[in-house]
């Protein structure tokens, strides 16, 4: 998989950029699978080509890592808080496609995400606006409807279960040997979401909750 089929997986990226993303993702997966009881369900549902907007719940700083591993056939960028762009770490996440988010309604970040999607790439967002303290899916911010409407691309719900126990908010460093699961849902066409009165926000939240509930039933 490493460095293969760049035009399909990450349109417009140079071979070196795509190779770098794959190498970092592979290294992260090796670490995660070594330190955690990690499982991915539904990876085959990730569209093989074309722009995709992924939507996931947010439990921990580990979420972008495990989400990227789950959807690794398609390289994905993500929105990250501006304060994370410091020093070498900021350079690393920027090189992997992270988009600085200054505030919840940061129009520049939304335009940057739209630009990635217009190039045929993938972006993941966390519509809760922050990490959940207890792992339960919080209400989605209404601004996500604007991004969905303007993007007009398939939206794939994702759910994580367990990262909040591995690295809860307020804990300085992550704990190891915890259970972490990721589930990938079926793509939802943009026009289906547009037809909802709220732009598909609640439909997406229910899809994420159902995915997370399924993980909890099967794995605890």
Instruction: Report the count of strand segments.
Output: 7
- The assigned CATH architecture is 3-Layer(aba) Sandwich
Domain unit count: 1
Average of per-residue pLDDT values: 95
Name the poorly predicted regions.
none
The proportion of strand residues reads 15-25%
What's this entry about, in short?
The protein is of the alpha/beta class. The chain contains 9 helices and 7 strands.
Describe the overall structure.
With 220 residues, this protein is α/β, with parallel strands linked by helices. It has nine helices and seven strands, in the order ααββαβαβαβαβαβαα. It has helices at residues 6-9, 15-35, 63-70, 87-95, 107-118, 143-151, 163-166, 190-194, 201-219; strands at 37-41, 52-56, 76-81, 98-101, 122-125, 155-161, 179-184. Strands 1-7-6-2-5-3-4 form a seven-stranded mixed beta sheet, sandwiched between helices. Strand 3, helix 4 and strand 4 form a beta-alpha-beta unit.
Q: Which structural traits does this protein have?
A:
220 residues; alpha/beta; Glycerol-3-phosphate (1)-acyltransferase; seven-stranded mixed β-sheet; 9 helices; 41% helix
How is this fold's topology laid out?
Layout: H1 6-9, H2 15-35, E1 37-41, E2 52-56, H3 63-70, E3 76-81, H4 87-95, E4 98-101, H5 107-118, E5 122-125, H6 143-151, E6 155-161, H7 163-166, E7 179-184, H8 190-194, H9 201-219
Parallel strand pairs: 1-7, 2-5, 2-6, 3-4, 3-5
Antiparallel strand pairs: 6-7
